[in-house]
Known about the structure:
This protein is an alpha/beta fold. The strands form two sheets. Strands 3-2-1-4-5-6-7 form a seven-stranded parallel β-sheet, sandwiched between helices. It has helices at 19-28, 47-54, 74-98, 112-119, 136-148, 158-164, 212-224, 243-254, 271-275, 292-299, 312-315, 330-342, 344-361, 364-376; strands at residues 6-12, 36-42, 58-61, 102-106, 124-128, 152-155, 171-174, 199-203, 230-234, 261-264, 279-282, 304-307, 322-325. It contains 14 helices and 13 strands. Helix 4 (112-119) links the parallel strand 4 and strand 5. Helix 10 (292-299) crosses helix 13 (344-361). The chain folds into two domains: 6-178 and 363-376, Glycogen Phosphorylase B (Rossmann fold); 199-361, 3-Layer(aba) Sandwich (Rossmann fold), CATH 3.40.50. This is Glycosyltransferase family 4 protein. GO terms for molecular function: glycosyltransferase activity. Residues 198-355 form the Glycosyl transferase family domain. It is an enzyme of class 2 (transferase). Its EC number is 2.4.-.-.
Amino acid sequence: MTKITKKVLIVNQSAELYGSDRSLLDLLTILPTSGYQPVVVLPEQGPLLEKIRALGIEVYVFEIFKLSRSIFKLSTLVKMPFTLYRVFKDLSRLNRLHQFDLSYTNTLAVLGLPLWARMHRIPHIWHVREIIETPRFVSSVYKKIVPLLSDHIVCNSKNTLEWLEPPDHVSSHVIWNGIEATRRIFRNPYQTLSAPLPVVLLAGRINHWKGQDLLLAASVQNFKSGNLYNLVFLGSAAEGQEALVSALRESIKQSGFEKYIQHVDFVSDATPYYQHADLVVVPSTKPEPFGRVAIEAMACAKPVLAASHGGLIEIVQHQRTGLLFTPNSITELANCLKVLVSDAQMRLAFGEAGQIRQAAYFSLQAYQSKLLAVFAAIKH
């Protein structure tokens, strides 16, 4: 049994089970057996909380002080001292119980822990999983505060690190996310689709930049010219943005091709959808900091059609594991879809090459071991 030597305070931005949340779980599974005792703080109840408790890890729910664009509004600025007081009070209470040796913030959205850790001289690791390009003022603020409040910075891709541009004196690391390949074969979830057409899948949160509208427009263009396939959107919107789901469903209905298009709400394990899809599309209109969906698809031996920006260009090898298209180009996306949908042998070859690449570069073991090396590098 590994002796517990260091206690780690960890704060996450949500209690959901999307990419960054799953990557946090991957870290939490290895910490207790590697000499660390993690204590986690979440801002809300949710499926992530239950997953963490199932690992036997102590988890609390209270306000964490999130960074958002509204932080610069007058009303938010007025409330900020009171919010920070409550957050600092709760974190200090936990510290009196545990006497933390280091701290870890997952994603840029959390500001409370970095500020508190700096005030209490507790070493801090900030895991950056976002690229914030606009507004430019907000982007510049992030670029200044992250190095200022971090002893070590971890970025999920080279593109994320290039955006952040941390100074040389701050220890910075690029660690790609990793996953464990699933060997179990799941039941086909696409029984209600128009058979025997190929299945094109987009898995991810429904928001303004994941590219659902772009993929829908490209597919409608294809459908009108007689190039048919089944199109599946898998995912839900964040709390307060449910109107985006309604808008997507209305667009599907108005397309005239509702027979070939389906929306499925968020599921905790999307593996069955990857396994039984013919190709996976990641058409993000803004740069993906990483692109976990791409490696999840590759682990299931599926070809990936992705926008050629952000972390996706570090994952998908054009014309080897999938295809890359010019971001925001409906015509180019439609053409790439036609190519892949019509060529089963190409899909098979890309999928097999992608599975090999995922195992070699984006494994769970590599992700965990590199993160543990960062934790071990913390000086006390």
